């Protein structure tokens, strides 16, 4: 099955609606997609309902997914989850805690921007950039700074204000990767570490997270070189973990307008292994 297991929508920092993602996925010949918005699962029912209403359920399978943003020893560690029971109490509490932390962080940054830099932004200027109930984050703050005339572009907003050394930046109080993995696993989901190339303690951390229920490594990712894919695939095999992959799609490439959804080569067997793993967890 041709799959893309890492996609963002307007419910976090993606630019496409779930409906547009469904249309695009079918257009580019994908058979399976996972919607993995940051810290929320709101895009999934929208995509499923749209697929049903257009009578194309035989064309595309949509998997319930999430990407949980966590912090560990000053590393930002992202944990993907697939097939979890989203009504599980601990999982619901995780979502609430993550959303509250995002709102608190954003409001603190807004106050510091006004006080220290004279850049005035309303919380609504940030909130309206995402779909109702979606996850606000750094890209939305950067855009609001630019829109308010604080910087000439979003890249400048990041380099001046959206980083740990900036006097107006506040780090989010977020869940640990250990807790995220355990909660997803206990909710019947398959927890996977996302784009591990970003973390130079990846191997040690992966071994640690396995004790909490980590079941996979995202080896196929647009930032991963072939050597990197090979390295993490071998690691997964050695540790008895599955391999997943996806485009980590947020927006079409601004330089050439190209849509990279599904462009990242993910072998067709990856979907089968994910399904096998879900069955194994259900039987455990």
Index terms:
284 residues, alpha/beta, TIM Barrel, 7-stranded mixed sheet
Topology:
Blueprint: E1 3-7, H1 18-27, E2 32-35, H2 43-53, E3 61-72, E4 75-82, H3 89-117, H4 123-127, H5 138-147, H6 154-161, H7 177-186, E5 190-193, H8 202-210, E6 216-221, H9 226-239, E7 242-246, H10 269-283
Parallel strand pairs: 1-2, 2-3, 5-6, 6-7
Antiparallel strand pairs: 3-4, 4-5
Helix pairs in contact: 1-2, 5-6
Explain what the structure shows.
It is a single chain. By secondary structure, the protein is α/β, with parallel strands linked by helices. It has a domain of 180 residues: TIM Barrel (Alpha-Beta Barrel). The chain is built from 10 helices and 7 strands. It has a 7-stranded mixed beta sheet. α5 crosses α6. The longest helix is centred in the middle third of the chain and has 29 residues. It is globular, with a radius of gyration of 19 Å. The mean pLDDT is 94.
